[in-house]
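C-alpha cells for chain A. Residues wanted.
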C-alpha cells in the first residue's frame, strides 16, 4: 500500500482534524488537512473562496488537493466534508481502500454536529441555517461516505479520546513502522 496510512472523511464537525491530529501523534506520523492545503495554495480562507469564487471553483481546487495528497502523503490525511462529492475523489478513495489503505468515515448525527458547529462563520455552507443545512448535507453525503469508507466510526455522544481509541484500533499494526 502506498499513500496515507489513514484517510479521514466525514461531515463538518465530525472531528476529522481533532481525531486525525491525535492519531498522527500516537503513531509518530505527519498530519495533513486538504482544506489547509487549498488555503495555503490560494492564500485565502475556504469561506472567502466560497464567497469570492464560488463553490465549483473551490471544489475543483479541493479535488486536485486530495489527489495530490493521496499520492504524496504517507501520514494521516483529513479531507474536507464535501470532498466526497467529487466522483474522481471517490474513485481515488475506493482504490486506496482496495489497496489496503484505511479510509475511516467519522459519522455524526445532526444534533451533535449542530452543537459542535455552533455559529461558525468559517463553514460557508452552514452559514444561514446550520441545523437544516447539516441535516440535508448528512442525508445527501452519507451514501458517498459509505462508498469510500473501509470503516465507520460514530462520534456522537463520545469524547475525542473514545473516538481516537476506536480509530487506532481499526488501523493495521504496521502503521507507523
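Reply:
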Amino acid at each position: 500500500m502506498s499513500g496515507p496510512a489513514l484517510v479521514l472523511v466525514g461531515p463538518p464537525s465530525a472531528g476529522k482534524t481533532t481525531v486525525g491530529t491525535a492519531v498522527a501523534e500516537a503513531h509518530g506520523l505527519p498530519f495533513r488537512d486538504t482544506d489547509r492545503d487549498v488555503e495555503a495554495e490560494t492564500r485565502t480562507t475556504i469561506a472567502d473562496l466560497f464567497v469570492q469564487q464560488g463553490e465549483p471553483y473551490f471544489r475543483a481546487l479541493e479535488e486536485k488537493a486530495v489527489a495530490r495528497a493521496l499520492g504524496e502523503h504517507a501520514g494521516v490525511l483529513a479531507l474536507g466534508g464535501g470532498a466526497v462529492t467529487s466522483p474522481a475523489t471517490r474513485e481515488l478513495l475506493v482504490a486506496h481502500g482496495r489497496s489496503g489503505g484505511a479510509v475511516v468515515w467519522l459519522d455524526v448525527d445532526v444534533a451533535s454536529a449542530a452543537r459542535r458547529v455552533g455559529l461558525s462563520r468559517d463553514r460557508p455552507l452552514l452559514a444561514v441555517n446550520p441545523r437544516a443545512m447539516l441535516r440535508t448535507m448528512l442525508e445527501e453525503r452519507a451514501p458517498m461516505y459509505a462508498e469510500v469508507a473501509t470503516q465507520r466510526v460514530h462520534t456522537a455522544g463520545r469524547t475525542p479520546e473514545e473516538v481516537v481509541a476506536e480509530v487506532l484500533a481499526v488501523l493495521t499494526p504496521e502503521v507507523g513502522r
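The radius of gyration is 15 Å. Confidence is low (pLDDT under 50) at residues 119-126.
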